[in-house]
Specification:
single chain; 243 residues; seven-stranded antiparallel β-sheet; four-stranded antiparallel β-sheet; 14% helix; disordered C terminus
């Protein structure tokens, strides 16, 4: 009877064009971006609290940011160092748009003892396949990387910064992530790809947040960690990775 009443009500609402009028309108579904900060140029990166504590830039992180800037924009180290303040604005959680994962920054967002660790990520970088051959031109190919997200922060680039921000008046914002990389190994068994790493994570690298694909799971097995990545061979949340 309830189903019949609901159907009759829908017929009446449509017949008299009341479906979009109060009090018959349904509740608005929450948007992915509700309560989030969105940095200009990163429409699908939704930044969530905690947010109150700035990220202090130590020498180690500064070197990683310098390495990212010099590699990505072909600027000199001194020019890169001049762009990095002593403190940076940071966020504890990153939500990837298009119904992607919520990822935690392990170095800032402290979990409860029974909390789920959502800091391990799958990201993609362009890697020189002939890096060990000094006299050979670069041969860049996209490769999957895995690691633990430590910090998500924004670096402000002022106007008239050569090779990065040629604008005369407006700042440019780089949304960056510090990730402790895992040295992974993989093989195939019955057409299934198995991925794992042993030992400790690396000392970290800084990458653009748009390279992050999703959160992945880990299963500890002695001194080995098996990686559970459901995104392998799929399409990704960011539009530049959609076929």
């Amino acid at each position: 009877k309830r189903v019949l009443n609901q159907a009759q009500l829908q017929i009446i609402l449509h017949k008299y064009q009341l479906i979009d009028k109060a009090p018959f309108t349904g509740q608005k579904q929450p948007e992915e971006s509700d309560g989030a900060t969105i940095v200009h140029g990163y429409p699908l990166a939704f930044l969530l609290s905690p947010h109150s504590t700035p990220l202090c830039v130590n020498q180690h992180l500064r070197q990683q940011i310098v390495r990212y800037l010099t590699t990505s924009f072909k600027i000199l180290s001194n020019a890169a160092k001049a762009l990095i303040p002593d403190e940076l604005e940071q966020w504890g959680r990153l939500c990837i748009g298009n119904r992607g994962n919520e990822i935690h920054a392990h170095g800032y967002h402290k979990l409860r003892s029974n909390g789920r660790d959502a800091a391990f990520v799958h990201y993609k970088l362009m890697v020189d396949q002939d890096a060990e051959l000094v006299l050979v031109s670069k041969r860049l190919e996209e490769e999957s990387q895995y690691g633990e997200l430590q910090h998500v922060f924004v670096l402000t680039i002022p106007p008239k910064t050569p090779k990065i921000n040629p604008a005369l008046k407006k700042n440019q914002y780089l949304l960056l992530a510090q990730i402790y990389k895992a040295l992974i190994k993989s093989n195939k068994i019955e057409d299934k790809k198995l991925i794992w790493y042993k030992g400790k994570l690396g000392t970290g690298e800084v990458v653009d947040v748009s390279t992050i694909q999703c959160a992945v799971g880990r299963i500890k097995d002695g001194n080995r960690w098996w990686i559970v990545d459901r995104s392998t061979n799929n399409t990704f949340a960011y539009p530049e990775f959609i076929d």
